[in-house]
Amino acid sequence: MNHEVPKIRLGLIPIVAAFLFLIMSTFPFNSIAEKMTESQIQNIVAISVQLLMNSGEPTDEQSRKIQSLKEMVDQGSIGKKQIGQIAKDQFFADMEKYRMSRYEIGNMLKRVPVLLPSVTEKEIHRILWEKAIQMLEEPLVLKTATLAPQGTPWIIFPETRLNKYMKKISKGKFSAKIYPGGVMGEDIDILRKMDMGQLDGCGCSALGTFKAIPELAVFTLPRLFLNYGEVDYIIKTFRKEIDTEAEKKGYYIDFIADSGFFYIWLKNKATNLDELRKQKMLTWMGDVETSIFDELKIRPIPVPVPEVVASLNTGLINAHVSPSPWVLGTQAYLQDKYYIAQPLYYSPGVQIFSRKAFMDRFRDKYPDNLIHNFIELRIYEIRTFEREYIDKNLRPYEAKCLAAFQTQGIEPIKLSDKDMAEIDVAAKQVWNNLADKVYSKAFLDKILQELENYRNKKNT
Description:
Elements lengths: L12 H14 L5 H4 L2 H16 L6 H16 L4 H15 L10 H11 L5 H14 L5 E7 L6 H17 L4 E6 L7 H9 L5 E4 L1 H7 L15 H10 L1 H10 L2 E16 L6 H4 L5 E2 L3 H9 L5 E2 L5 H7 L4 E5 H6 L8 E3 L4 E10 L4 H4 L5 H16 L2 H22 L3 E3 L3 H18 L6 H19 L1
Parallel strand pairs: 1-2, 1-3, 5-6, 8-10
Antiparallel strand pairs: 3-9, 4-7, 4-8, 4-9
Helix pairs in contact: 3-4, 3-5, 3-6, 5-7, 6-7, 8-19, 9-10, 11-21, 14-20
């Protein structure tokens, strides 16, 4: 039997292909992006915004929908401005529903291009501030005071760099007024005026920091930190705990900078501990400082900070423990002839603002979540400048001051290993004496453990 393969006429091929295409086009093989309604688009954007604000990760299904939205944008099925407007409306609504964190805002902005196709970090940053600005019917000028002298980086950087930036992003609605040089009194006076509502903030020295947030006294323990690497590591490690302690006391911390390492400055030469004990030593900083003096059998003379220079001039005191920028800014160096090369302790400088400055001011007008988000956004912005403030301003200035003093003839004196060993023993006694009185022993123990870990890593 002869079996022939049937022949298809070539002329039928285009007809068959067209027929198959027509059939396929009626089946649901289109991407989700081609079928997405405006309501579905809004839902995807809402999911993305919620994930951004809550630092969440999308499910596989959510990722697929976000990818489909990206395809729509790439195909031109939906405009970039439309997505941006939907995102803006959603952020405006959700800033009253969800709480952002100062620790996560930076990561949130970095994730914007992944979760919101065609929208940029810069656009969302602008949207966040646009919502925040709506709260400020009138320009808000926060009043803060400090002992830091005019003309030092403690004043110059906040006034010129930070304040200028905050005015820019808030379109002139937000700024700070700084009262320098102790014109509002010592830190204790400033804190009292904050309680009374006369001031909003304090650029605290150690004394003010410990009064406002006693737990932070641990950071000024004598001989605890030996260099800035250790300081930075410990503050970074415990940053959230520090913020929590501050907020328990009713304060928000804008930034933690340096008062710096504190050195013993002398009018008369003293080359050992016995000779130091004969000096008329100033004290002003509170329990930690007086405790180390007690252990070393140094009998200090208490003098308020605004009167220190006058007391040096009159001879009431002839020795003091201070950071080099302060010595320059107050011109105390005109009475100093020597300094002990090994620092006695480190002290942070902490800018705090009271809860009254924010929550109580806005509570009757806006939801708590929105006020919270404004505070977190503001703190986030300021902290983006923290490393620049410290690494490019405060620490280089401290080094320049020490170098300049030596050029001017102020002589560094290095104590013997024996004397330093005695100071270290006394310092550890202070650590133990003040534990669970000024700060918690548990907090100190955690810091000591992390310091040991850090030093071990550096030595390997």
